[in-house]
Amino acid sequence: MAIYETILERDVVILGGGATGSFAAIALKDLGKSVVVVEKRDQLGGHTNTYADSATGKAVNFGVQIYHNTSVVRRFHQRLGITVAPLPRPTIKPLYVDFSKPVIVDNYTVSMVGPDYTDQLRKYPYLEDGFHLPDDVPEDLLLPWSEYATKYNIDQSQHAIFQAPGSPGDPSKRLAVYVFNFVNSLVLSAMKGDIVRNVNGDNSELFRNAHAEIGTENVLLGSNVTSATRSPSGIKLVVSTAEGEQTIHAKQLIVAAPPQASNLEPLGLDSREQKILGQVEGCPFYTGVITSTGLPTQFSYYGVGADAYYQAIQPPSVAYIMPSPAAPGHFFYGYTSLEPLGQNEVEARVRKSIRGLQTLLVANGSDTTAEPQFRAFADNTPFHMELSAESIRGGFYKEMDTLQGYRNTWYIGALSAITSSLLWSNTEAILPRIMSAIDGE
C-alpha cells in the first residue's frame, strides 16, 4: 500500500485534468519533468464523458464524440496506446425539432458550407487557432452574427454553421469573431468527414490510459485548491482531497481549468489578474444518457427555433437527442441554457421534451407510454468561453497573453479554442516557454 504523502514536491502542478491538462501532463512527463494534476471531478478527461451500459458493457459517449484527423490527435492517441480510425458515415436521418412548441421543422435543410461563408472566413486567418487579433480589431468582428451575416449576404451556409460545432447560447447573437474562430477551416474539414475516434468506441479510454501513465500518486481526483502562495521562488498550493489536506510545492503552475476569476479565487488573484480574468464568461451546457425514451431509433433529433432567425435554436432548449451507435436503447443528449440549472431541473426539462417528441412521432413508431430513465449526467459549464465586444475592443486577448508566466502561472485550455486538436497543438506551442521557466532560463 502506498504511503500517503501530505507534501508533494513537483516541477509543475496542473490545475484541471481535462483534455488539455492531461495532454500537458503527458507532454511534460515525456520531457523529463515531474507533474501533479489537481482535478475536481472523479476522472480525467473533462468533457469526455462515457457511460458503460450495465448489461453489455458497451461505451456510450455523451460528451466528446469525435476528433479531428490531425497529426497531434494521432500522435497523442498513439502515445497512449489507442488506435483511431475514421468515423463511418452516419446512416441515421436527422430530424430538426423546435422542442419549445413542440414541432418538427420540415423545411430545415443543412447543405455544405459554401463560399458565402468561406470567403469571409479567409479574411481572418488570425482566428484559425486562437484570437491573435490586430491592435485595431475590425468592428465587423464585434457584430452579432445575425448583423454580420446580413451585411455580407451569408445565406446558404447558415444552417450548417448553426449545427457546428454545437449550440451553447443563442448562435444568432454570438459575436462574429467567435463564429469564425469556432467554425474554422479545421471544423469545415471535419464536416466533410475528416474525423477519427477510438476504434473500440470508448473515448474515455484515452484518459484512463493517461491517468495510468501520469501515475496515481500524481493525479489528485475529487480535489480542490483551498489556498495558494505564488511567489518568485515558486508555487505552494494547499489542496483538499478525499484522503485529507495535501500541500504541493512546484516551480510552475499550469491552469487548464476554466480561467474565470470566480473559478480561480483560491489562487489569490491580484488586481491585475482580477481585472483580466473577471471578464471571462461562459454558457451553461449539460449532457447525459437516457434509456426508455420511447423514441424511434432511426432518427437523431436536433434542436432549432421554428420562428427564429434562420431557425436558430433558442435556449433554454434541448440541443440534441441522439441514439447511441454502440448500445441499443441508449440515447445521449445536450441541453443549452442561458442561466445555470441543477441536474434535477435539466432532466425534468429533457423529460418534458421527450414526452413532446413521443406524441409527435406516434406515426413513426414512438411509444407514448415509455418513461425516460436518466442514467448519467455531466455539467459542462462553462462552455464556449466568450467575452463582450467591449472587452475584446479593449484588448482582452493581448492582456491575457501578458499573463503567461506572470507569477509563475501559465494558462492553457478552452479560452483560445474549443476542439481538442487545437487545444493540444496550442499547448505544444507554449510548452517551450514553460520548460524554460521550469529550468530557470
Any chance you could write out the topology, listing elements then pairs?
Elements: E1 7-15, H1 19-30, E2 35-38, E3 50-52, E4 59-61, E5 67-68, H2 71-79, E6 84-86, E7 93-98, E8 103-104, H3 115-121, H4 145-151, H5 158-163, H6 176-182, H7 185-191, E9 195-198, H8 205-214, E10 219-220, E11 224-231, E12 234-241, E13 244-255, H9 271-277, E14 281-283, E15 285-291, E16 299-303, E17 317-323, E18 330-336, H10 343-360, E19 373-379, E20 383-386, H11 389-393, H12 396-402, E21 409-411, H13 420-438
Parallel strand pairs: 1-2, 1-13, 2-10, 7-16, 13-21
Antiparallel strand pairs: 3-4, 5-9, 6-9, 7-8, 11-12, 12-13, 14-20, 15-18, 15-19, 16-17, 17-18
Helix pairs in contact: 1-8, 1-13
Pfam families: NAD_binding_8 (PF13450)
Organism: Thyridium curvatum
InterPro entries: FAD/NAD-bd_sf (IPR036188), Zeta_carotene_desat/Oxidored (IPR050464)
Which descriptors apply to this entry?
single chain; 441 residues; alpha+beta; FAD/NAD(P)-binding domain; Polyamine Oxidase, Chain A, domain 2; 2 domains; seven-stranded mixed beta sheet; 13 helices; globular
Quick summary:
One of its GO terms (molecular function) is oxidoreductase activity. With 441 residues, this protein is an alpha+beta fold. 27% of the residues lie in helices and 25% in strands.
Describe the structure.
The protein is an alpha+beta fold. The chain folds into two domains: 7-48 and 204-280 and 387-438, FAD/NAD(P)-binding domain (3-Layer(bba) Sandwich); 50-200 and 282-383, Polyamine Oxidase, Chain A, domain 2, CATH 3.90.660. The protein contains 13 helices and 21 strands. It has helices spanning 19-30, 71-79, 115-121, 145-151, 158-163, 176-182, 185-191, 205-214, 271-277, 343-360, 389-393, 396-402, 420-438, and strands at 7-15, 35-38, 50-52, 59-61, 67-68, 84-86, 93-98, 103-104, 195-198, 219-220, 224-231, 234-241, 244-255, 281-283, 285-291, 299-303, 317-323, 330-336, 373-379, 383-386, 409-411. The strands form five sheets. Strands 1, 2, 10, 11, 12, 13 and 21 form a seven-stranded mixed β-sheet that branches. It has a seven-stranded mixed β-sheet with strand order 8-7-16-17-18-15-19, with helices on one face. Helix 1 links the parallel strand 1 (7-15) and strand 2. The longest helix has 19 residues, at 420-438. The radius of gyration is 22 Å and the shape is globular. The model has no long low-confidence stretch (mean pLDDT 94). It comes from Thyridium curvatum. This is FAD dependent oxidoreductase. It holds the Pfam family NAD_binding_8. One of its GO terms (molecular function) is oxidoreductase activity.
